[in-house]
Each structure stands twice: as structure tokens, then as C-alpha cells.
Amino acid sequence: MTTYQTVNPATGEKGREFPTLNEAEVADVLTRSQSGYEAWRHTTLEERAEMLATTAALYEKRADELARIISTEMGKPITEALAEVEISTAIFQWYAVNGIGLLDEESLDVAGADESVVHKRPIGPLLGVMPWNFPYYQVARFAAPNLMLGNTILLKHASSCPQSASVIEEIFQQAGLPRDAYINIFASTDQVADIIADSRVQGVSLTGSEKAGASVAETAGRNLKKVVLELGGSDPFIVLDSDDMAATVSSATKGRLSNTGQACNGAKRFIVLADVYDDFVAKLVASFEAITPGDPLDAETVLGPLSSQTALDDLLKQVDTAVTDGATVLTGGKKIDGPGAFIEPTLLTDVTPDMAAYSEELFGPVAVVYKVASADEAVTLANSSAFGLSGSVWSADLERARDIADQLDVGMAFVNEHGTTLPGLPFGGVKRSGFGRELGSWGMDEFVNKKLVRVSAA
Ligand code: NAP
């Protein structure tokens, strides 16, 4: 049974519970989404772009209120919550400005006809299944390009963030989007499966765990529905050398600890060449030890609680298992006493391929550090993960770093930066990190009918 309720992870305080849909309501939202599509698909591109621009303006105007909601819902430090609202605003604005151009028709070689053109057309109602870790940003990545295209959306958000889910819908309506073009649904897992199976729904996009992705993809496959999956990651952060180790370590700390370590594309594995290893590790330990988790609503806080008590228990179990299996704790590893789902920032080493910690995603402020003898060994280790979301290479020698970045089996490779996301850049992974891309032109290329129209004289 799915319960939609906020539980503040910094205090354990429970918020309002939101009822899940009943059977009749599921039937109703499906009907509404289809009839909404028949109307929305016939609006002009200019009308859709204007609605997205208004949505962006409302996010900007309500930024403080929106940031506060997610800080109390999932514990995101308030400065990061404001940054999330800002990038979400930028995504709506980007599609408002660029969306019309991305839908231009493409004229082909007529090849014997009078006219041969590819149009980009919507396909119908879509289902989005979204996670709690970036409540606004994840929805913006999916909703902005698809609303611009003319698709309609049923959005099932994580059960732990019903307030942000509700306010997203409210803002769309405030921005003038027809009520049935975007419908927030408090649905159970079984209802999600029924919705995917319904003939009116044309596709599903899930951001979340491998388990949820596999379940949704299985239902989608059985019902021949297009699916996009944005799943987990265990991103490598490869240090080849450094002219400024303090700066590299500062980026490593941010790469691992931002969003309290609960980012799919967090730097989860530090892979460091032997000659700089000791320096890197000493500085990284000091950097982690200088950070104390605190109240997410305090602007000084850089590390909040984990999203829930369950998330904390799961992560502590993973750390304990790693230690039992032979890993060494360089720093941290313990729960912080008191209320709230707080854990010390943690660094592990001596993790070997036979241990669970080698292959599992550690979703919190816990990283594993590996020492390697060569850049080739770094690439082999990086690519030994079943995930392939993103990875970064750090070096003063850009040629060498570019070459290593090119060898990573990931959807996004960076040199001397980690985890950059911007509205115009593609986001997505390979291997068990999922398939499909969001953002930029790529985000408009998933749930689209690239429709050929050839016209020949009678
Ligand atoms: P999760 O448990 O998979 O939940 C994500 C969403 O899927 C929630 O709305 C959840 O609903 C729903 N869900 C769970 N099981 C389902 C099922 N069997 N059928 C249908 N829906 C189901 O993931 P999470 O723990 O919240 O999120 C963390 C994961 O997301 C991490 O692995 C992270 O790396 C990944 N992530 C990936 C990206 C990316 O872009 N690649 C971005 C962010 C996060 P309930 O809340 O009701 O269970």
C-alpha cells in the first residue's frame, strides 16, 4: 500500500497524508489525459512556449517557498534547494525559447515525389514516474519538452514528496496550462502498471532505481509502450595528476556530498593514480571531516539528513557489510546521534570486486577510494561497474585527460568538472544506468512521432 506523506527527515515530524486514487479516479484521469491531449495537441507552438515561459516566471517568483517545501520534505540544504528551483526555472525557459525551433519540419530529398517532409508530432498521453531526490528538476526535465511537443502528462511522483508534487501541478495551472494537460496522480505501484497498460497512454519515463525501472519497463514491454529510464550510477572520479590538489579535492567533496550524496551522478568512486594518492586522500579526509551535517533550513548547512530513516538504515547496513567484508573506514561510517536521518560523511578504501560495496550504488555521503598504478588501470576499474551514467577525469594535461574520458563507458564524460547539468546538455546513461536522454534537443526526441509526409502528383 502506497502512502503519500511528508516525513521531515531532519526531525521525524510527520506532515499531512494525501489519499491515493481510487479505481474510479484512475479511470477518470486516463479519460481526462486523453481528452486533454485532443485539445493540447491543437494549440499553437507559440501558445505552448508562452505557457512554459510563464511557468518559468512563476518558479522564479515562488523560489523561496518552493525551496522550503523540498528542504522539509526530503532534507535538501536550503541553498541547494534554491539552486534546484533555479535550474528547473532555466529548463522551462530554455524550452520556451528553443522549443519552437526544435520542432521545425525537415525537408528531405524529394526522391521522385513532389514533396518529402518529416514533421515532429506529439504521440499522446505519457506517464512520468519520478523520484524524491530532485523533486522539481526531474519533473521539469520530462514535462517541459513533452508539453512543448503537445503531449499530455500524468505524473506519479515519489510518495515521500506529495507537497512538491502538488505545487508543481498548481504552478502549471497558474501558468495557464489546461487542467488536463498535466495531472498529478497519487497512484500506487499497481495503479502505475494499469495506467501503463491502458491503450490511451503512449509511453512512460521513469527516473529512479534499477528495481523500479525494470518493473516499469517490463509492463511497458508487455504493452508495447516506449520507455525512457534514468536509473542509478556509481560514477568514477579519476585523478591522474593535479597542479592544485586543494582545488581538485574541493571539487571531489562537492561531487560526492552535494544533495547529501543522493544524486544519481554523484562522484561515488574516487580512482586515484599512485603518485598523487596519499596527497589526495589526506586532503579528502580533512575536507570530509570539516563538514558537519546540520539543519537543512539553515543557509550555512552544506550537508543535510538522508531523505528518510529507511534510507539511513539501508546505507548504514551497506557500510557495515563493507567493513565486515574487509573494507577500511578512512573517516565517518556512523549515524549521528539524535533525531533525524543524519550520517557522518564517510570514506571507504580496500574495497575489492568480491564485495557488495564494489558494485552497489551507495546513495548517500559515502565514497570509495581506489589506488591504481596507471591510467589504463583506472579506465578498467571505472568501466568494471555495471552502471554507466557519467564520469570525470582530473588532470592538468588536457590531452591525456580527454583521451581517458573518451575511453569511459558512460553517457556523460567530463574533464576537470563533474556532474554538470544545463538545460541544453543531454542527460542520460548507458548499461544499467538506463536508456534514453533528457534535456536539450535530445529530450524532445523521445516521445515524438517523426512523421514522414510524401506528396506526389496524382
Ligand atoms: P525508486 O524507489 O525507484 O523510486 C522512484 C519512483 O519510482 C518513485 O515515484 C517510486 O514510487 C516509483 N516506484 C518504485 N517502485 C516502483 C514500481 N515497482 N513500479 C512503479 N513505480 C515504482 O527510487 P528512489 O530510491 O526514490 O530514487 C533513487 C534512485 O534514483 C537512485 O538509484 C538514483 O541513482 C536514481 N536517480 C537517477 C537519476 C538519473 O537521471 N539517472 C536521477 C535521479 C535519481 P514510491 O515513492 O511510491 O515508491
Automatic annotation (TrEMBL):
<comment type="similarity">
    <text>Belongs to the aldehyde dehydrogenase family.</text>
</comment>
<keyword id="KW-0560">Oxidoreductase</keyword>
<dbReference type="GO" id="GO:0004030">
    <property type="term" value="F:aldehyde dehydrogenase [NAD(P)+] activity"/>
</dbReference>
<keyword id="KW-0521">NADP</keyword>
<dbReference type="InterPro" id="IPR015590">
    <property type="entry name" value="Aldehyde_DH_dom"/>
</dbReference>
<dbReference type="InterPro" id="IPR016160">
    <property type="entry name" value="Ald_DH_CS_CYS"/>
</dbReference>
<dbReference type="Pfam" id="PF00171">
    <property type="entry name" value="Aldedh"/>
</dbReference>
<dbReference type="InterPro" id="IPR016161">
    <property type="entry name" value="Ald_DH/histidinol_DH"/>
</dbReference>
<dbReference type="InterPro" id="IPR016163">
    <property type="entry name" value="Ald_DH_C"/>
</dbReference>
<dbReference type="InterPro" id="IPR016162">
    <property type="entry name" value="Ald_DH_N"/>
</dbReference>
<feature type="domain" description="Aldehyde dehydrogenase">
    <location>
        <begin position="3"/>
        <end position="453"/>
    </location>
</feature>
<protein>
    <submittedName>
        <fullName>NAD-dependent succinate-semialdehyde dehydrogenase</fullName>
    </submittedName>
</protein>
<dbReference type="GO" id="GO:0004777">
    <property type="term" value="F:succinate-semialdehyde dehydrogenase (NAD+) activity"/>
</dbReference>
<dbReference type="InterPro" id="IPR044148">
    <property type="entry name" value="ALDH_GabD1-like"/>
</dbReference>
<dbReference type="InterPro" id="IPR047110">
    <property type="entry name" value="GABD/Sad-like"/>
</dbReference>
